[in-house]
Amino acid sequence: MEKTALMIDDLLDLVEKPARYMGGEMNAVIKDPAGVDFRYVFAFPDTYEVGMSHLGMRILYDLINRMDGVCCERVFSPWTDMADLLRSRGVPLFSLETRTPVGDFDMLGITLQYEMSYSNILELLDLSGIPLHAQERTWADPVVVAGGPCAFNPEPLHCFIDAFSIGDGEENTPEIIRVVRESKREGISREECLRRLARLHGVYVPSLYEARYHEDGTLASFEPRFPDVPRRVVKNLVLDLDRAVYPESLIVPFTEIVHDRVNVEVLRGCTRGCRFCQAGMLYRPVRERSMARILELTEKLLDSTGYEEVTLSSLSTGDYSCLPQLAHELMERYSQRRVSLSLPSLRLDSELKKTLEETQRVRKTSLTYAMEAGTQRLRDVINKGITEEDLMSSVEDAFLNGWSSIKLYFMFGLPTETREDLDGIAQLAAKVVRKYFEVPKAQRARGLRVNCSASCFVPKPFTPFQWEPQDTLEQFRQKQDYLCRIMRIKGVEFNWHTPEVSFLEACFARGDRRLADVLERAWRKGCRFDGWSDCFKFDSWMEAFGECGLDPEFYACRRRERGELFPWSFIDAGVTEDYLWREHQRAEAAQVTPDCRRGCQGCGLKRFEGACADR
Amino acid sequence: MRMWCEFEKTATVRHLGLLDLQRTMQRALRRSALPVAYSNGFNPHMLMSFASALSSGIPGDAEIMEVRLSAPVDAQEALCALRQVLPPSLPVRRIRLVEDSFPKAASLMKAARYELRLESPDAPQIARAVGDFCRCDVVEALKKSKSREERVNIRPLVRALTVERLEDGLVILQAVVSFSESASLRPDLLCRTLLELSGVQAERVRIFRRELLTEKDGQLVPLFEVVP
Fold this sequence. Notes:
Largest interface: A-B, 24 and 27 residues
Order of helices and strands of chain B: EHEEHEHEHEEEEHEE
Oligomer: heterodimer
Number of helices of chain A: 20
Largest sheet of chain A: 6 strands, mixed
Distance between the termini of chain B: 13 Å
Largest sheet of chain B: 5 strands, antiparallel
Radius of gyration of chain B: 19 Å
Strand content of chain B: 35-45%
Radius of gyration of chain A: 24 Å
Strand content of chain A: 5-15%
Number of strands of chain B: 11
Shape of chain B: elongated
């Protein structure tokens, strides 16, 4: 064994969960180096178990590996024990497939799923020996590209990333690879290569833009530095999911991961228009995959993985137009093969009763209801079109059909929230418990579990609440204490999230370029895995803000004016600012907006030809 | 009918624990579409097991998985099918079919042969400790479990221990260790005990399981060989 390989092998003896770094899984793609002239490494800035559960990575891994002469390997954030060992022994971070140092790849693609993984990105770059700052990199370093939902406000990462890919990654990832591959072949400068990338649709190269600020800290102007650099970056859009590439085999991890099952994306986007939901706005319009294609993919994926469970995934699987037929067909085909079907993000108001009855032929998993708010008034404010009756009739069905485990999700700190809305959370949970005991003992399954969780609301860019202040930490703590008191209900388990993490998430979600310094300082103070409560160092973050002379409340808790230029305003995410403001006004008046499939609400997607099907 | 599959747990995946390996094999069996039998009951599970659990961290050259079948298969076809569904890190070597009446692989396990590679500048001292070890009737080792520590005599569990190679900074040992339900000896404990006896430290210890053994006519023979 060569020296580095031997050093890596030694490290695996010293860390917890060595399987995270092992590689060698079924269906991992290892290409013959002789046939490869461009190497891409896909980085997920969290643990193996979390990253391997991510559908986007699976799609891009497959898509890139289908390209001739190009290989895609994987790397995940090493857990702190491994990171410390790599650093102290001088072993560079390596890919799972071939244990190649990450810094030796031509391109490093990073997915941005969550603001609280940003410190892991710096850690990952540093452990790979790649200069943190894009401007210090040379052709000896990979071109660092980032995409995913958080790329819709890329500014807090502006100096660490060479180029961002905005929107659906399937569309322009091959294009980005082509441009970098050709640039390297032609021997042009890295700067010139980035200029070429900036001209691609949906690509943002932050070093080619300049931001200026007003004295009050708000953004004054945001301009390209060169005339050939586009003023606005328009998101990428996959129009036809049936023709979009989708993996037909998946890597089957040796160790258990968070979503350890076949995952078939049935649709992308959501038309419900929940006002807090960034994904619902970013992934517009709704695009469905045909039932025939879903069945074909399911068959191939089950055959190639041996998984015993299938998930139909999307933002709102209950909205899939032929869900009952699809679920029925899947049950018909696979119950004999001991494959169970799970339906996440279950919508209450969908016609699912029959489907549910069929699913339980195989296995009963817990049912999840995202109620989001405790009263009808507040649900109207956030446009969550679910009523108490919907919930009650659905849980009654569930209890009658043998379910006994229910999860309820809520948020607190929503705009216009009052004490009454918090009380409503406890009342709803209590009503679910009562419903269970109303079902005759002989008929209901034993062991009622109502798992109720409340998270702190985080206003996000490109939502109608992008102008709204987040509650202050003090307000969150008071509300949380109150909730803990009123949620002491028999049969109900209450979980909450620490408000400090949500506060920081809010800063970065709507942050500007200046937060890059805060991020770097916090990372230098040892911040990493901020989304993991045992690693989160809130005080270090606050110190970092202080040292940079920035006030976190300016980002999280400030009410923004209609005319304010946002750091993300240069991105065309599909939904227009006019639409978002209209929705903002309707929210204040607690007016609901119907699902746009029942009439166009003019969100802006019609501007994209062929994007929005009239139904 | 049952199927005995001899496979290698390669060094790449030596950190697989028993549960991970079991899950991996079960998924591979599902991919293979071989007629694997399931248990009855509320949560049916595949009727498969290993001749002997192999600790995380140790690769195995010739591990045995035993699978109960619900319909007869052809051994050669089953071998092809399994090879296609396992990653290169877990190659299947051979398959034999046995009747239901044949004893279970796990019940036939009597011993295992390990190769112990200890890297140390004081390798000669470790080699000398092997001689001392073999001459003793009682060698106490500190056995740690989750709840307690105790000193046990491990000497009777070591059926053979020899120095295969001694070179600069490295000693390679061969150990045949008894296996029974009442008493078994982990090879890493044997290594620790030898280091304790020699009074030196090793920079790196690598353990390989080379063979699973059973008894036939009073002799230790490879487990796979006793299949009719």
